[in-house]
Amino acid sequence: MEDKIAALEKRLIELELRNKATPLTEAALALNEVAAEKKKADGAAGDGSKEEKKDEKEEPASRVKVVVTRRDPETGEPIEKEKKVEKSKDEDFDREKFAFILRKNIYENKFSPYQTPNGSEIDVVSADLWNLLKKYLGHFPYHIFREDPVTIHSPYDHIVYQYDDLLAEAEKAEEDGENMKQARKDLKLLLDTIRTSSGDEKLDKYFKMRPNYKKQTPNTVQFEDLWTVFPPGMLVYGRPFQGEDQVFVVKDNQTYWPWRDPGMRDPLPWKLDAWSYDWKDGSFSRTLFTLEFEQFDGHLPLTSLPFYPFDLCKEQEKIREKLVKRGQKFRDICNARNDSRLFDYQGLSILETKGFSGMKQDQEARIFPRHRSGRNSEN
After folding, report:
1. CA distance 173 to 193
2. CB distance 129 to 187 below 8 Å
3. Any bridge partners for residue 29, and if so which?
4. Contact 273, 251 (CB under 8 A)
5. Where is region (Disordered) located (predicted)?
6. pLDDT tens for residues 23-50?
7. pTM assigned to the model
8. d(CA 127, CA 15)
9. 266 CB neighbour count, 10 Å cutoff
């Protein structure tokens, strides 16, 4: 009320001055009007700067956008009541402001005995970040990192296999262009997000245990995390046949996490597909073998597993030399021409007999013949 009265008094004074107008009073009034207009203009400019500051505040504080979706485990579709929410979350933001988008899929398992595990997926938006991933992950099977960006799904096996190399790249302090610096920051953010809050419960648990695995010599592992040890292309050592040294090339695992049937106390064996070379149908070719790992409790050193990385063998060079010589001999025998397949053999052998008359002899006899035979044998 007092402000209104003061404004009225001021207006009356101005009217009186106008009625008693002199050049001096008119100049004073003109100056007052100019000052008022300037004040008004400054106020408008101030409002504009406030709006600009407001827009600046609306810029994303992080380069990752997280979207949470609840899905029906039977259909994989968003639950009806959440569809509009998901759409608004997924579309009401500018994708280009983010380096990547993490979608966490939560499955509503209420009554099914077969629980669908929660998972997540990532859309890489930044082209520079994708090119950085290409550099380290382009060699993996199916070559999904060689083309344009695609959606990648948990447990993000390629990134887990190369995690240490990717982290070293993200922490480089080299003087590169601004784009590369930002790409490394985005890569560090991606690795930290997957490590701490991936949306995949089993993967989050693995990363919590990972420091314990790595601090041991040799490294240790739990049964649930076996897949993290064997990336495609790794040389794996074992002695599955008659205690003889063998090396395989990892093709892929049959499943990431061990499968546990609700009606079973222990999970099924975890299986790894691996290649070896063998003589088959008159030629050498890759032969697929399935390497099995029985369930075990607690942490085990990698070298105590039935199959483990060949790089961990204590006598790696000695075993390599032995296997190369054995392979060369096997190749010479298999590739020998028909007219030269006569070899000297000394060692245990099994006599081929017919009927029951030779059974006792076969079981009791240990024969050490030295003879020439037209039938080759490796064992």
Report:
1. 21
2. yes
3. none
4. yes
5. 37-88
6. 444 544 454 554 555 556 566 555 555 5
7. 0.71
8. 68
9. 13
